[in-house]
């Protein structure tokens, strides 16, 4: 049944040949799942570039060189469509940590009930979302772009956990996203779980948004799960000078605490991680046993301040 579902998904995304080839590579030992996944990613990139490179060139030509960019408020955007009170405990703990460490910022939780108060999507986007063509995950990609373009500020995924103040390399940047992979050598060059824009109408975001809208206006399937990331890569490749202005900070350290969630709580290990970074990308999709690190999230985020106060 699982194989049938995968084949059906590949056919709907028109990636059957690529997926079968990648699967064959893993079965014959020529590649592991990571390398096979990279192949699929590059094939998707090539397809999207072929079909949308001219759109991007037109977007670049039509956008005014000088955008009306206004300084953003100290605003944090988080989304949980069902409402934070209905979120899993890990998500609620993450939210509590953000409120604790960013108490001087305005924190807004976007839900299905209040979303229209902040953004207005094109009619075809709303229709395809309601029909299930656009998933909640991929709607959130469009949502973060809309919010940052129109308001600026800091977007963080609902599973972002904080154990310290926001780093200066973020707050002092005009635009910031964490880098992915080694020296931009991977297809995906950024992590979208944290995005900061000090000003409205950031060009990298505007171009990416335009490509996404052009895609969803034309197609009723998702070519690749990382559609927004691939379009962002296309945009940064065309605007290398703007990408160069973004501090190159990798997000590997920010994923270390996630690995500890199901493990028995180790104070020394958690201190090692929180000394590396105060911002952590977690997941609520984890099995938790008694005494696990995940059970400590309700108090762990306060430890760093208490430790600093005691020095």
Distance between the termini: 58 Å
Structural class: alpha/beta
Largest sheet: 5 strands, mixed
The quaternary state of the protein chains shown equals: single chain
Shape annotation:
globular
Strand order of the largest sheet: 2-1-3-6-5
Helix coverage percent of residues? 40-55%
Q: Count of DSSP E strands?
A: 7
Record the SSE blueprint.
Layout: H1 2-12, H2 16-27, H3 33-62, E1 75-79, H4 89-101, E2 106-110, H5 123-130, H6 136-150, E3 153-156, E4 160-162, H7 168-171, E5 175-179, E6 190-197, H8 203-218, H9 227-238, H10 240-244, H11 256-260, H12 267-276, E7 279-281, H13 297-310
Parallel strand pairs: 1-2, 1-3
Antiparallel strand pairs: 3-6, 4-7, 5-6
Helix pairs in contact: 2-3, 3-8, 3-9, 4-13, 6-8, 8-9
List keywords for this structure.
311 residues; alpha/beta; 5-stranded mixed β-sheet; two-stranded antiparallel ribbon; 13 helices; Capsular polysaccharide synthesis protein
Task: Characterise this structure.
Pfam families: Caps_synth. The protein has 311 residues and is α/β, with parallel strands linked by helices. The protein has 13 helices and seven strands. Strands 2-1-3-6-5 form a five-stranded mixed beta sheet, with helices on both faces. It has a two-stranded antiparallel sheet with strand order 4-7. Strand 1 (75-79), helix 4 (89-101) and strand 2 form a beta-alpha-beta unit. Helix 3 crosses helix 9 (227-238) and helix 8 crosses helix 9 (227-238). It is globular, with a radius of gyration of 20 Å. The mean pLDDT is 90.
